[in-house]
Amino acid sequence: MRTGIARKFGRNGFDAILLARRQEALDTSVAALRQQGIEARGIVADAAVGRV
């Protein structure tokens, strides 16, 4: 989910799990959410890996 959507859910009491291809982008987004008091975790993933 995008950071903006995660922020909306987080403001309504939900935790957020973000997926991104690059660790750096993920760390930035997760840190921004946590600074706003939103419980967030990140997972590095690429849907294109392993495609035939």
In a few lines, what is going on in this structure?
The protein is an alpha+beta fold and 52 residues long. Helices cover 42% and strands 19% of the residues.
What is the gyration radius calculated from CA atoms? 12 Å
Within the largest sheet, what's the order of strands?
1-2
What value does the average pLDDT take? 91
User: Helical content, roughly?
Assistant: 40-55%
Provide the number of structural domains. 1
- Strand composition percent: 15-25%
- Helix tally equals 2
Protein name: Short-subunit dehydrogenase
Q: Could you explain how this protein is built, in words?
A:
Helix 2 links the parallel strand 1 and strand 2 (40-44). The chain has one domain (3-44). The protein contains two helices and two strands. With 52 residues, the chain is α+β, with helices and mostly antiparallel strands. The protein has a two-stranded parallel sheet.
Considering the chains and any ligands shown, give keywords for the structure:
single chain, 52 residues, alpha+beta, two-stranded parallel ribbon, 2 strands, 19% strand, Short-subunit dehydrogenase
